[in-house]
Design goal:
It contains 21 helices and 10 strands. 55% of the residues lie in helices and 8% in strands. By secondary structure, the protein is α/β, with parallel strands linked by helices. This is Hexosyltransferase.
């Protein structure tokens, strides 16, 4: 039994021991082998390094990046310390050469203001370069493979430090000036950028103002539609069988000419005249509109008759049959395909130009209503004097004294608008054209339309309408003046205009927010010329109430159309 156990232990245990012993021996033998291999590899590498310490060309032959690092570290520890010192001095000199060249370049950009410093910087940069190419330095320090000559190195270091010191002093002296120049340059760049933004904003603002001014407000469109609807709904109340009143041709009364397609604007002009007139029954209003707005105008004044016994005549442009293309040059020009294309097809292009150009190119000037002012004697042949009023004016005083002013045989009584070099003939007419240069003085003072007292007898005597036709025909190609009615007016009444006192007619309430209220309150007529008309949302608030107080707010359609007054 004991033998059996021993055999079992010998066979099983002895066999296990042998296998375990074999495994341990193999493991330790493998570790010893690996250690020996690494030791041999390290010794071989070290021997290669030690046997070639001063041959940089062999560096590229090192097998791995790790060996390259070992080699660089060893070379750094065994190199000549003077070489390292030379490298540092050389780097310092190179850095200051770069700095000096940078300041020289900036000095060159500033040009004449610091030309002396530019020359100094250039000389200093050249001196740094000369140090490196001097024969002693070049031969001993930069071209020799042997050890560095310490004496030459000391001399080179001294010269470099002197140049560096000089460079630093110059840079410290000029730095403040350069910093100021840089700040000025940045400020100029900022100003330029802001100015570009300002120009863009002005263009956008002018364009928006143009759209707001030239578009028909919803309230005005609503009012016209309501009036026409009233005419259609109750035709019996608006019969056209009224006979012309004798007052319409009575030269002893005070006659006004108002040409407009804006119903509420005309009503304000008429109401302001009547409310400030001492004898309103002696005032006669001749209102002319286009065919489309005629019925709306008639309904308004039928529903809201003129107060104070004043008289009102309503006509359309088409009622004056003599105004045809065979007689009126501007009608021929308005019908020309070229002009229609100029106004309508290029509308978007025109809208991007300056505000005054937008005004003269506005399609509003295609309307014959604006040119009726040149035909007053023929439209009202039995009258001697007539006062022309624009539809964007408000009358604040009795105007009958205008008919008593002696015009000294002149045709047109108007307020002059020139001051300094502004509003002279040169701003309205093309004086590069020989016909204009020959006939007119570019410094002649311009005057304003909007409130003009015309002596129709003198007009007929001077043949002003013929003069207007003559010049309008010459300007068929727009070479004498741009489109509009003031330039031909300045030409037609060049020597036949009498200057009136400025208190009769104050202008600018449609664009100028700085008009004195004392000047406005003393004026007989205030004029909202400009884009900011008082019936628009963009009107100047400080002047708007001077117009709205004459609006007939009791008129039901005004309330229904929400004028926002």
């Amino acid at each position: 039994m004991a033998v059996a156990v021993r055999v079992s232990r010998g066979g099983g245990g002895g066999g296990g021991f042998c296998l375990g012993g074999f495994s341990l021996r193999s493991f330790f033998s493998f570790r010893i082998f690996v250690s020996a291999m690494f030791s041999l590899l390290f010794i071989a590498t070290l021997s290669v390094v030690l046997t070639n310490p001063s041959t940089p060309d062999h560096n590229s032959g090192l097998p791995t990046p790790g060996n390259a690092y070992v080699r660089r570290t060893f070379l750094a520890l065994n190199s000549d310390p003077l070489k390292t010192r030379l490298d540092l001095i050389y780097k310092q000199a190179s850095d200051h050469i770069t700095l000096v060249n940078a300041y020289a370049a900036y000095a060159r950009k500033l040009k004449l203001e610091i030309s002396r410093q530019l020359a100094m910087f250039n000389d200093l940069a050249q001196n740094f370069t000369d140090l490196q190419i001097k024969p002693p330095s070049r031969a001993s320090l930069f071209e020799s493979d042997g050890p560095v000559d310490e004496e030459v190195l000391k001399q080179f270091e001294k010269e470099v430090k002197d140049k560096v010191k000089t460079a630093r002093l110059m840079i410290a002296e000029a730095k403040e000036n350069y910093d100021n120049q840089l700040k000025i340059q940045k400020l100029q760049d900022t100003i330029f950028a802001v100015n570009e933004l300002l120009i863009k904003a002005r263009k956008n603002g002018a364009f928006a103002s143009y759209i707001a001014a030239k578009s028909i407000p919803k309230s005005l469109h609503c009012l016209a539609m309501r009036l026409v609807e009233e005419r259609v709904s109750h035709p019996e109340n608006y019969a056209d069988d009224e006979e012309p009143k004798p007052e319409f041709e009575d030269p002893s009364l005070y006659h006004y000419a108002i040409f407009s397609d804006n119903v509420i604007a005309v009503s304000v002009v008429v109401r302001s005249v009547v409310k400030n007139a001492q004898e309103p029954w002696k005032h006669v209003f001749h209102v002319v509109t286009d065919r489309m707005n005629l019925e709306a105008m008639k309904v308004w004044f039928k529903m809201r008759p003129v107060e104070g016994g004043a008289h009102l005549e309503m006509k359309a442009v088409e009622d004056f049959t003599f105004l045809n293309t065979s007689y009126v040059p501007v009608l021929r020009q308005l019908e020309s395909a070229k002009l229609q294309s100029f106004y309508y097809e290029n509308q978007a292009e025109n809208a991007t130009k300056e505000a005054h150009n937008k005004k003269v190119k506005s399609s509003r000037y295609l309307s014959m209503l604006d040119h009726l002012r040149f035909y007053l004697p023929e439209m009202y042949p039995k009258l001697h004097k007539i006062l022309f009023l624009d539809d964007d004016v408000v009358v604040q005083k009795d105007l009958t004294q205008l008919w008593k002013i002696d015009l000294d045989g002149k045709v047109n009584g108007a307020v002059e608008t020139c001051f300094g070099s502004f509003h002279r003939y040169a701003q309205y007419l093309n004086f590069s054209h020989p016909r204009i240069m020959e006939k007119f003085n570019p410094k002649a003072c311009a005057w304003a339309y909007g409130m003009n007292i015309f002596d129709l007898d003198s007009w007929r005597h001077e043949k002003c309408t013929e003069q207007y036709h003559h010049w309008q025909n010459l300007n068929a190609d727009d070479t004498l003046w741009r489109s509009g009615t003031l330039p031909p007016g300045l030409i037609t009444f060049y020597s036949t205009t009498k200057s009136l006192d400025k208190s009769w007619h104050v202008l600018g309430l449609g664009y100028n927010p700085s008009i004195s209220m004392d000047e406005i309150n003393n004026a007989a007529v205030i004029h909202y010329n400009g884009n900011m008309k008082p019936w628009l949302d963009i009107a100047l608030n400080q002047y708007k109430n001077l117009w709205t107080k004459y609006v007939d707010n009791d008129m039901e359609f005004v309330q229904m159309c929400n004028f926002g007054l």
